[in-house]
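ESCALATION

Customer reports they have been waiting on this structure for their group meeting. Please prioritize. Original submission:
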Amino acid sequence: MRSMWERARATEHARVRSDAAGTFLVGLALLAVGLVGVWRGPEVPTDLWWFVLTLAAMCAVMLGKARRPLLSLAAGTVVAALDAVLGGSMGVMVGLLDLLYSAALRVSAPALRRLRVGAAVIVAGSGAAAFAATGELRDSANVALLAFAVLGTPLWWGTSVRQQTEIAALASARARDLARIGQLREQEAVLAERARMAGDLHDALASHLSAVAIHSEAALAAPRPADAEQAARRDREALTAIRSASVAALREMRSMIDLLRTGDEARTSPARLGELAGLAAGFRGQGMELTVDVPSDLPELPAAVDQAAFRIVQEALANALKHGRPGPVDVLVALGEEMRIEVANPAGETAPAAGGGVGLLTMRERAEALGGSFRAGREDGRWLVCARIPLGAGT
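Update from on-call: job pushed to the front of the queue and completed.
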């Protein structure tokens, strides 16, 4: 970035030097053909070296127009006044026009307004002075027009170029802002998708992996029966339960990996409340005393509500399996103006505190993302998960 700025600055300085040198050469050419006496009529002084000196002074002043445009304009005005006393030359006039243009292009907005006001005052004053001197309206108009051509034209030209430059800069800044907004939106979408994927992974795998951990721990911790046949049967039951949970977890993982590879969500069937029977059978197979109360004639629900309700029930049952004590677990899904989901189980000593744990967090996020509410905690010795979701959410 610094090197680009330095190159731009070097280019501007080179342009300033070339402008000064070009003005000096043009001024010399105009002096050679006798274009002097601008303010005194056709009278031409015999010694042209004075005009060469004023021309050189004007070109020297032009070298500072990029760094100090107002100071250069003031110095150039003094040189032009001295040149006018000698009779006036076109080379100095060209230099003064360039300084006026440069000032209009580079000074601050308040300074530019003051330059415009000063130019208007000079134009009006020159016309009034000419009328007071000659009494001729035509001559006064000619003088005013000449003053406007000298002062107003470079100011107008510089202002126009300045406005176009500012418009281009604003358009470039707007394009950068839009690009930045696009990047922020893309990052936000990526973060939201990561959060959704994390929730889905947790919901899909936590219950199965918890079952594997519980059954393996129980098989390792229980005393081994003396009867070899009874021991083999118990080991087989534990291994069967572990295999069932592992296969289910592997199936869920393959489904999500397939989705991530293809990006085609239509290839995966999102879990719905209609699949609660299969979910309940899986938990019963892991030894849970489960009762499910769901309306037999479930209406067609918005996909977001249907999937969120299933995942909340799934996670609540996984928490009950992992943290709860043995005993009856009740699942209730009721429909009215909103869907009410309740999962109650005997609270264990390791039951997570309300507001803590990844499972509770994902359940709360699913409910509140659809405009619903969520709470979880101990009530009368049982751990109760309660979620309410508006039926019109997600439509």
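Sent to customer with the following note: The first strand starts at residue 289 and ends at 293.
Escalation resolved.
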